[in-house]
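Suppose you are handed a protein chain with no further information: no name, no annotation, nothing but its sequence. What can you learn? This example shows the usual starting point.
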Amino acid sequence: MSESPYRLAVIVGSVRDGRFGPVVANWFCRQASQRADLVVDLIDLAHVPAALGGAPGAAAPDEPRAPFAERIAAADAVVVVTPEYNHSYPGPLKAAIDSVGAQWHAKPVGFVSYGGISGGLRAVEPLRVVFAELHTVTIRETVSFAGAHACFDPAGEPVDAGPVNRAATAMLDQLGWWAEALRAARAARPYGS
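A reasonable first move is to predict its three-dimensional structure. Written in structure tokens, the prediction is:
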């Protein structure tokens, strides 16, 4: 393991009013923050410029103000927290993904999904194709919440924490391996050269 923690960008993919994404993302960030091998950068698309699908206006008070592309460039790995909308992922998430190019290259991407009976997994599958085109490595392990609203208590903690905490650990273990390997590879030889 590297002596330097890797930088994990966690993207909240929904910008709708009344969205549930922040509950899921905040839980996941708490899980990730318990690890010594990474540093979390939470990117809420509702607080990025409207041109990227976010709400118009300034960033939230606690939201870093660096542009989205710079934050993706600085990341060694990414986790996308996405709902399933109409058997796919949200349009603003696609706009944000497409607004960035080479910053995605040779980085691992994991997924935390939520939704109805499928747990948002129908949103993850097309995202894997999109991220393959962007030269990323998508992580096999995922975390998903079927019937998401019933999966969390009023404090934003999972009702049945054991299985989802284990799933998050498995995904973060894989993500960490790839983040370290690809960071070393990018340092030794820029991607595509």
